[in-house]
Automatic annotation (TrEMBL):
<protein>
    <submittedName>
        <fullName>HAD family phosphatase</fullName>
    </submittedName>
</protein>
<dbReference type="InterPro" id="IPR036412">
    <property type="entry name" value="HAD-like_sf"/>
</dbReference>
<dbReference type="InterPro" id="IPR006379">
    <property type="entry name" value="HAD-SF_hydro_IIB"/>
</dbReference>
<dbReference type="GO" id="GO:0005829">
    <property type="term" value="C:cytosol"/>
</dbReference>
<dbReference type="Pfam" id="PF08282">
    <property type="entry name" value="Hydrolase_3"/>
</dbReference>
<dbReference type="InterPro" id="IPR000150">
    <property type="entry name" value="Cof"/>
</dbReference>
<dbReference type="GO" id="GO:0000287">
    <property type="term" value="F:magnesium ion binding"/>
</dbReference>
<dbReference type="InterPro" id="IPR023214">
    <property type="entry name" value="HAD_sf"/>
</dbReference>
<dbReference type="GO" id="GO:0016791">
    <property type="term" value="F:phosphatase activity"/>
</dbReference>
Length: 286
């Protein structure tokens, strides 16, 4: 019997409107009612993930920022894996030199140095990853999309390094028109020690501490409950989900998942739009 379900959010639990469907919410609550532990494992920060869950009345623990942090269902921090600030400085220099747009997730929220660039990046993200958007509709929806992902604007990223109260959790890097510089920067950063580089979608890579991985975080949380790996169910759609899909025989890739994700997962469920999470949960928690 499944005792723990860990689900990704964007592209998995959430539909293309960045919402949790009634069907998915009902399946999660049914599993919880049956005594199954449910947690989300997301690239989002706690402040980005919480409102979406609260909107449909789901209260659960969270693994956030790709595994850099975890919180219990009351929002109390369980653990944090932050990047070394000397490494952070090197990564900032590499990405700035490559002229790539990036954001930095910290223990005090997400930071950006370019409001105009962030808006344009949101438009390109919608156009490149969702078939139902034209350029006009993407530009119309982009502000609403960004409202769901709060950010702090800052003049210089190096100011974060001088603040001893702030821990650096993740770099989120984007590029839709500079593939050469994008790949070169990704390779250069990947060669640094104690670094994990993953991706949430094409045109993106994300940089975390080596121990900030969803698979390690789900395993750590399961161990705290004495739940063996063979009683864990995981669901995801992209490359930053691979580590948690690989730890259990009960792993599900979404029908909309990346090809490599489908190769790693043991099973495939329906798309995020067609309530694939609900269908997988109901299959495993009969």
């Amino acid at each position: 019997m499944i005792e723990l379900i860990a689900s990704d959010m964007d592209g998995t639990l959430l539909n293309n409107d960045m919402k949790i469907s009634t069907e998915n919410a009902a399946a999660v609550k049914l599993a919880q009612k049956q005594g199954v532990h449910f947690l989300v494992a997301t690239g989002r920060s706690h402040t980005e993930a919480q409102p979406v869950l609260s909107e449909v009345g789901i209260k659960c623990p969270m693994i956030t920022v790709n595994g850099a942090q975890a919180f219990d269902k009351e929002g109390q921090e369980l653990f944090t894996f932050a990047l070394d600030k000397n490494q952070t400085k090197q990564i900032i220099e590499t990405l700035t030199k490559a002229e790539l747009y990036f954001e930095i997730a910290t223990t005090h929220g997400v930071y950006s140095i370019g409001e105009k660039e962030r808006k344009e990046n949101a438009v390109q993200l919608l156009l490149n990853h969702y078939d139902n958007y034209t350029e006009e509709s993407a530009r119309a929806f982009a502000p609403e999309h960004l409202e769901q992902l709060p950010v702090n604007f800052i003049a210089n990223y190096n100011d974060l390094l001088d603040n001893t109260n702030i821990k650096i959790l993740k770099f989120i890097v984007f590029s839709y028109n500079n593939p050469g510089q994008f790949i070169q920067a990704q390779e250069e950063i990947s060669n640094q020690r104690d670094i994990s580089v993953t991706s949430s979608f094409v045109g993106n890579f994300e940089v975390n501490h080596i121990d900030a991985q969803k698979g390690k975080a789900v395993t750590r949380y399961a161990q705290s409950l004495n739940i063996p790996l063979e009683k864990i169910m995981t669901l995801g759609d992209n490359l930053n989900d691979l580590s948690m899909l690989a730890i259990t025989p009960h792993s599900f890739a979404m029908a909309n998942a990346a090809t490599k994700t489908k190769e790693i997962a043991q099973y495939e469920t329906d798309t995020n739009v067609d309530h694939g999470v609900a269908k997988a949960i109901l299959k495993m928690c009969k």
